[in-house]
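Incident log, support desk, overnight shift.

02:14 A customer reports that sequence design results differ from what the structure should imply. Their input is reproduced verbatim below. On-call engineer (initials T.W.) acknowledged and began investigating.
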């Protein structure tokens, strides 16, 4: 394990903590896409089934359990505890537009045609597009709360650090996972415009706002 992997995990965990604290303190999930959170919960569920079959390390197991628990707590807070504050009208991205092609691709392009491997591949592909409902929601409302942008920044940073992790592993271990790398690059590309707005507006104390769609 290298520093990029650890920093990536820390950034990912920090993003989730920021989101949970935002919802808990404000007692509101306004501006948060419940659909994106459902997709992330599905990502962790299908990826971490190996918890029941393989032990890698204490660190690996603990992080997987934490991500799973946090994902379902987030979904619970949005759809149950604070459901009255949930903006279902603007959280209108059609999930089937993501789930159908991702499911098909995971059957066509995988490392081995076994149930666990197909589900792992499905989780990798799905994670690369899981943020789209959140970005779509922001584009639809035209703005995002500062705390929400911090969440998105650390989520994007996690992916960028994992790309560095793959580069490091390629040069030090001669390890290369095409499915993970390509999906990670695609996911990072989705964050590029957001990163630009984050550095040019949010970090300067301005509210992140976008042109309203026509």
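02:41 Re-run completed on a clean worker. Output:
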């Amino acid at each position: 394990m290298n520093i990029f992997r650890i920093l990536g995990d820390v950034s990912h965990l920090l993003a989730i903590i920021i989101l949970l604290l935002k919802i808990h303190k404000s007692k509101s999930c306004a501006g948060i896409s419940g659909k994106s959170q459902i997709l992330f919960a599905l990502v962790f569920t299908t990826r971490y089934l190996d918890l029941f079959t393989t032990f890698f390390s204490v660190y690996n197991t603990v992080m997987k359990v934490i991500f799973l628990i946090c994902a379902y707590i987030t979904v619970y807070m949005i759809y149950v505890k604070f459901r009255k504050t949930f903006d279902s009208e603007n959280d209108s991205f059609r999930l089937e537009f993501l789930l159908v092609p991702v499911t098909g691709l995971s059957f066509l392009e995988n490392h081995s045609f076994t149930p666990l491997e197909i589900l792992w591949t499905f989780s990798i592909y799905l994670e690369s597009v899981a943020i789209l409902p959140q970005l779509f929601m922001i584009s639809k409302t035209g703005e995002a709360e500062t705390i929400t942008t911090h969440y998105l920044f650390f989520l994007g940073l996690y992916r960028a650090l994992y790309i560095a992790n793959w580069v490091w592993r390629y040069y030090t271990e001669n390890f290369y996972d095409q499915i993970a790398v390509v999906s990670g690059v695609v996911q990072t590309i989705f964050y590029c415009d957001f990163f630009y707005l984050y550095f040019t507006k949010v970090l300067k104390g301005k509210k992140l706002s976008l042109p309203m769609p026509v």
